[in-house]
Structures are given as structure tokens and as C-alpha cells.
Design brief:
The complex is a heterodimer of chains A (397) and B (197).
Chain A (H helix, E strand, L loop, with lengths): L1 E7 L2 E6 L11 E10 L1 H7 L15 E9 L10 E4 L2 E2 L5 H4 L15 H8 L5 E2 L16 E4 L7 E2 L6 H4 L5 H11 L7 E5 L3 H12 L4 E6 L2 H9 L3 E4 L5 H7 L8 E4 L14 H5 L10 H9 L5 E4 L12 H6 L3 E4 L4 H13 L11 E4 L3 H10 L7 E4 L9
Parallel strand pairs in A: 10-11, 10-13, 11-12, 13-14, 14-15, 16-17
Antiparallel strand pairs in A: 1-2, 3-4, 3-8, 3-17, 4-5, 5-9, 6-7
Helix pairs in contact in A: 5-6, 5-12, 8-10
Chain B lengths: L22 H8 L7 E9 L3 H9 L11 E8 L2 E7 L5 E12 L3 E6 L7 E9 L6 E9 L4 H10 L4 H18 L9 H7 L2
Antiparallel strand pairs in B: 1-7, 2-3, 3-4, 4-5, 5-6, 6-7
Classes of the chains: A alpha/beta (397), B alpha+beta (197).
The structure holds nicotinamide-adenine-dinucleotide and zinc ion (2 copies).
The site of one zinc ion has 7 residues of chain A, from loops.
Pfam family, one (chain B): Polyketide_cyc
Protein name (chain B): SRPBCC family protein
Family (chain B): Belongs to the ribosome association toxin RatA family.
């Protein structure tokens, strides 16, 4: 089959590789029909994630048609499914509490060592995201092997097009969980840092959960426009002092809940990145914890901070004093995708959540390297690229 | 709450977590017919009843399904078993070990016979986890590393070091018992076969 493979920094290629096979009873093989490039993939692209090997297949946001099933799978050939990015067994203590991203059994035993050393306990497996998260082949390919196919994938009713449901795999549940973790109460003002896919879905979710106002923060005009489309007020952090603006816009109180949807991934905070040019115009300079620190300082006393954003290791200058004195609550974590999928599929079908607005580009799998380059270089216009393995290559002009 | 072999009367932490340099001797004193001077031990919680887990383990022939470095275990009759275990550099080592303790639903102990190349003894214990959360499985192993310290370093390079192996084997046992399979990141049969070597 053809698959997007990683070979090093800024070097991804579409290669011919062996087809995946059923290896365990609960496996299924999916023929991919749509697969998105995620902001997190750019981190692999930039070469910042350790434990990658040349030839690794990327991709963790995908869907397709079931073409083969193991004896323990509950799927049937021909069904269309969206697959969660987290690989969770459904049987361990954590899965039984619906804490799917904390699954004990998603990672192969050997791969658990690194996560255990880094975090104290191993986490669930992830598709296409380095060997620290299991070394599982991802879904930017024609086919993929899906473990635990009886508990992960959700079956999509006929007639619902891919583009509407694809984001059930990651960013929609992530934005939803972020809003849920903000424990929104009627009358609340919610501030959201970052208007990428996660932030934009958090904006929509916050309104659905009863927020009175949502204030969205970014510096890309097009992304701020999208937030405004869903009813958010916006702040451009390149032009405005965030803490001062948030206090003025909330009568001096601060937002009731703050959502950090930026994290390490967004602008990397790495030397060769756009972030470097931005940081001089903001008040906190070089620190990597910029958005989460702003969120803690701006949040009202007794308020809630929700952090879907991914942080890797240790952070510097975390305002623990402000956090304690103000009595804030912080909730975070990788998304328990399987837990949210059924209700969110219903919300999409009922037209309560708009998902397709996010897709700025659709292209064949063969053009994935070009897609990575565009997504990397033009974040304002390129909000989401969906690769379609079955799509024809555009005719040469 | 105590966790298996304990170090002293003053605390409940298991001897395998002790800072005491004599911890192997203390553990040996608590095992039947202990052999070996290097101690490793690990506990894992498995979301299954104690008796099921005991029954699987007591059928020693099945253990290679999750003990990646054990090629096979053959019953020789009379509670004696021949273990064939992968060693670094594509070699194997063999020994005969006898079951020394057998408490249905609770514990299994074994020890190698006198002339074994790798003297070792061990015990696996099954206890109800608190709060009805399944079973605590504790494996304790005493062994003499082949070729002393140098052998141990080489074994570690090849991931055959018992401390690493026990930890990973217990995780695989948990996967097999909870999910019915052992997780793999491979995507073809050929890749998985390679991983197992
Ligand atoms: N918890 C999970 O399971 C999970 C799942 C998916 C993604 N994530 C994480 O969520 C975060 C957002 O993902 P995304 O795909 O939306 O990323 P993205 O890169 O598309 O969006 C991030 C946005 O943040 C903006 N930004 C950068 N610095 C900012 C600042 N200081 N203040 C305000 N905005 C700022 C950027 O301009 C960008 O638009 C990432 O950290 C990602 O890894 C977490
Ligand atoms: Zn993603
Ligand atoms: Zn699980």
C-alpha cells in the first residue's frame, strides 16, 4: 500500500510499504477514506518528538471502511467507522471508568518503559506518534491495523459524509472535553487561548454548555474570524495586552474559566519558529508556559482552568502561588475520545455542532508532503488539511 | 497493607523496594529453598479474579505466551519442569526447576535443581486487591546472573535482564488476562515475528 512515512526533520514521503495484517483477535483492518493532518503532526515534522524511526507511518485522525476483522472484532466488513486516536483496551480499571487515555494495556509492554520512567505510569497507545506511544502505524495511509476494534471505532450511519464526522477522531472530543473540564456555569465568561481546531471546537462547546460569553485569543486574523463566526469575542495577542484586556472585558473580575488550547505544539516555542518573533511583543518573553501562565493569572478567584494543550516534560516559572492563593481548579489530560464519540456523533447529526467549516484543503494522499509543507508554513489560511487516499491527483495545468 | 515479603516489623513496604544491601538475603530467608543472590520483584493489578489468574499460571506450559524470553516449559512429571530460555546472542539456556509451593488461588513457588546453569527460585502470589479491584499479582525472583556482573550487563543490552523481563512479562500477563491478547505495535506478521526474537 501507499503511506506517508517519516524520514527526519521536514522529510516526509509517500512510500510503498507492506499492507497491514490482522495480528490479534480484536484487530480490524480499515481502508482509509479520509485522514487529517493535525497540529501535533507538525511536531513530528519539525523533528521534536523523540523515539521516531525512519519509515514510521504518521496519522492519528482518520476514518474508513472495514475490510477485514479478527475473530474478536465486533465490526463487520463494509461498515464505515471513525477511529479514536487513543488505543484503549476497554477492559482495564481505567477503561472501565471511561478514562480511556489512561488505559493500562494500550501500549506494548516494552514501550511502556519510557512512559513509566517519564510520567510514573504508562499511558494509552496512540496511532502514528512515535515509539514512546507504542510505535503503532498511523492512518495517513491506504490501510491501517486497528487494535481493540470492538471498543474504539464508532460506526457511522450511511449517507453521512466523511467530512462531517472525521473530527470525532480527536479534535472535536478534545475541544468538548476542554469545555467540560472548564465546568461552565450559567452566566460564565470563558476565555480560550488558541483558535486552532481544538480552540475553535472548545468555543462551540462552551456555548453549547451554557457559557454567556466566550473570549477567543490568537494572532491569526482568519482563525479569529472563525471564532467570531460562532459568537466569540476576540483578542489579537500581537496587538493587545492579554491580561489587561481580559480584566477590562470582565469588569475587573477575570474570566470564570480559562482554556489553554495552545501548548507546546502550537507555535512550538522553538528557536526556529514564528513564536520567536512574537514573544518580543508580549509581556512574558521566552517562557514555554506562556499561555497557561497567562490563563492562571487572568482567571477569576475560585475559577477553573482547563488545559487540553499538550505539555511534555517540566515547565519553568509555573505560577504555583497564584494558583494556590486564588484557589483555582486545573483539569487536563489526553482526551478520553471513546467516552465522547457517541454523544458528539448525535450532536453532529442534529446539526448542533458544525465541523466542516474547519477544512480549508482537501488533497490526495500522494500530495501529503506538500500538505505538510503548506500546513507548516501558512497557519493563517490553512486551518485543516484532509487527505483522501481515493481522490484523483489534480490534472497538470 | 502489607505487600508480600516485608522487610522489617516496623513498616509494610515490600523487601524488593528496600534500600538495604542485604535485601536479597532477607528475601531468601522468606522463600522455600531459595536459590540465587539477585532479587527482583514487581506487583501488577489485574482486573480478574484471583483463581482465574492462578489457574492460568499453574499450567506452566502456557507461560511462554507472555514470557517473551521463555521458549518453552515442558512438564517432566512429579512437579518437575524443564525451562528453555533465550539467552543473549541467539543462544538458549536450560534448567530443571521443581514446584516447591502450591496454594490454589494464592501462590506458586519454584526452585531450580542443584546442577542448573542459572540458579534461580521464585514465587508468584495472588491476592485480592482492595476495594474489589481485581487481583494483585506479585512476582518475586532470586537468581544468579549468568557470568556474574559482566553477564548481567550483556543480558541487559539484549533486554534479557531479569529485572526488565519480570516487569515486562507481568505487563504482558495483565494484557493477556484483561484483553485476551498481547499488545503489539507491529503491522505485519513478519514484523511481529522479528519483535519476538
Ligand atoms: N489533550 C488532547 O488529547 C489533545 C488532542 C489534540 C490536540 N491537543 C493539543 O491541543 C493544542 C491545540 O491543538 P491545535 O490542533 O488546535 O493546534 P494549532 O497549532 O492548530 O492551534 C494553536 C493556536 O494557538 C495560537 N497561539 C499560539 N501562541 C498563542 C498564545 N500565546 N496565545 C494565544 N494563542 C496562541 C496559534 O496561532 C494557533 O492558531 C496543542 O497543544 C495540541 O497538541 C491535545
Ligand atoms: Zn490530532
Ligand atoms: Zn484499558
Amino acid at each position: 500500500m501507499r503511506a506517508l512515512t517519516w524520514h527526519g526533520k521536514h522529510d516526509v514521503r509517500v512510500d510503498s510499504v507492506p499492507d497491514p495484517e490482522i495480528l490479534n483477535p480484536r484487530d480490524a483492518i480499515i481502508r482509509i477514506t479520509s485522514t487529517a493532518i493535525c497540529g501535533s503532526d507538525l511536531h513530528l515534522y519539525d523533528g521534536y518528538i523523540p523515539s521516531m524511526k525512519a519509515g514510521d507511518i504518521l496519522g492519528h485522525e482518520f476514518m474508513g471502511e472495514v475490510v477485514e476483522t479478527g475473530s474478536g472484532s465486533t465490526l463487520r466488513k463494509g461498515q464505515r467507522v471513525v477511529v479514536p486516536f487513543t488505543i484503549s483496551c476497554g477492559a482495564c480499571f481505567h477503561c472501565s471508568k471511561h478514562q480511556y487515555s489512561a488505559c493500562d494495556n494500550g501500549l506494548p509492554a516494552d514501550n511502556q518503559d519510557i512512559a513509566q520512567a517519564a510520567y510514573g505510569q504508562p499511558m494509552a497507545g496512540l496511532f502514528g506518534y512515535s515509539h514512546m506511544t507504542g510505535g503503532y502505524a498511523g492512518g495517513q495511509a491506504e490501510y491501517v491495523r486497528v487494535p481493540f476494534s470492538d471498543v474504539g471505532p464508532i460506526v457511522i450511519p450511511d449517507g453521512v459524509e466523511d467530512d462531517k464526522v472525521l473530527f470525532l477522531s480527536d479534535i472535536l472530543p478534545t475541544g468538548w472535553q476542554a469545555a467540560e473540564y472548564a465546568q461552565i456555569e450559567p452566566g460564565d465568561t470563558v476565555a480560550v487561548w488558541g483558535c486552532g481546531p481544538v480552540g475553535l471546537f472548545a468555543v462551540q462547546s462552551a456555548f453549547l454548555m451554557g457559557a454567556e460569553r466566550v473570549i477567543a485569543i490568537d494572532h491569526f486574523p482568519h482563525r479569529l474570524d472563525l471564532a467570531r463566526r460562532f459568537g466569540a469575542e476576540t483578542i489579537n495577542f500581537e496587538e493587545t495586552k492579554i491580561y489587561e484586556a481580559l480584566l477590562e472585558m470582565t469588569g475587573g473580575i477575570g474570566p470564570d474559566a480559562c482554556i489553554d488550547a495552545v501548548g507546546l505544539e502550537a507555535h512550538g516555542f522553538f528557536a526556529d519558529n514564528v513564536w520567536d518573533q512574537i514573544k518580543v511583543s508580549t509581556f512574558t518573553g521566552t517562557d514555554r508556559t506562556h499561555s497557561i501562565r497567562q490563563a492562571i493569572l487572568a482567571c477569576r478567584k475560585g475559577g477553573r482552568v482547563s488545559m487540553p494543550a499538550v505539555y511534555g516534560g517540566f515547565v519553568d516559572k509555573f505560577p504555583l502561588g497564584a494558583f494556590m492563593e486564588k484557589g483555582l481548579t486545573l483539569k487536563t489530560g489526553q482526551t478520553h475520545v471513546q467516552h465522547y464519540m457517541p454523544a458528539l456523533l448525535n450532536a453532529i447529526m442534529e446539526g448542533k455542532i458544525d465541523t466542516t467549516f474547519l477544512i480549508s484543503h482537501r488533497m490526495p494522499l500522494e500530495q501529503a508532503p506538500e500538505g505538510y509543507r503548506m500546513f507548516h508554513d501558512k497557519q493563517n489560511e490553512v486551518t485543516k488539511i484532509v487527505l483522501k487516499p481515493g481522490m484523483d491527483l489534480p490534472q497538470a495545468a | 497493607m502489607g505487600t508480600g515479603l516485608t522487610g522489617t516489623q516496623e513498616q509494610d513496604a515490600p523487601i524488593t523496594t528496600s534500600k538495604d544491601s542485604d535485601r536479597s538475603d532477607i528475601a531468601a530467608a522468606q522463600l522455600d529453598a531459595a536459590k540465587g543472590d539477585t532479587l527482583v520483584g514487581k506487583t501488577v493489578t489485574i482486573n480478574r479474579p484471583r483463581q482465574d489468574l492462578y489457574d492460568y499460571w499453574r499450567t506452566l506450559e502456557q507461560l511462554p505466551a507472555f514470557m517473551e524470553n521463555v521458549e518453552r516449559i515442558e512438564p517432566l512429571g512429579g512437579n518437575r519442569y524443564r525451562w528453555t530460555v533465550k539467552a543473549p546472542a541467539g543462544r538458549t539456556v536450560e534448567w530443571v526447576a521443581a514446584i516447591t509451593e502450591e496454594k490454589p488461588g494464592e501462590a506458586i513457588g519454584w526452585t531450580s535443581e542443584e546442577d542448573a546453569d542459572v540458579a534461580n527460585s521464585g514465587r508468584v502470589e495472588f491476592r485480592d486487591a482492595p476495594g474489589g479491584r481485581g487481583t494483585w499479582v506479585t512476582a518475586t525472583l532470586l537468581y544468579d546472573p549468568p557470568g556474574g556482573i559482566v553477564g548481567k550487563v550483556i543480558a541487559k543490552l539484549f533486554q534479557r535482564e531479569p529485572a526488565i523481563q519480570v516487569r515486562r512479562d507481568l505487563r504482558r500477563f495483565k494484557q493477556l488476562m484483561e484483553t485476551g491478547e498481547v499488545a503489539t505495535g507491529a503491522w505485519t506478521q513478519a514484523q511481529r515475528a522479528e519483535e519476538m526474537n
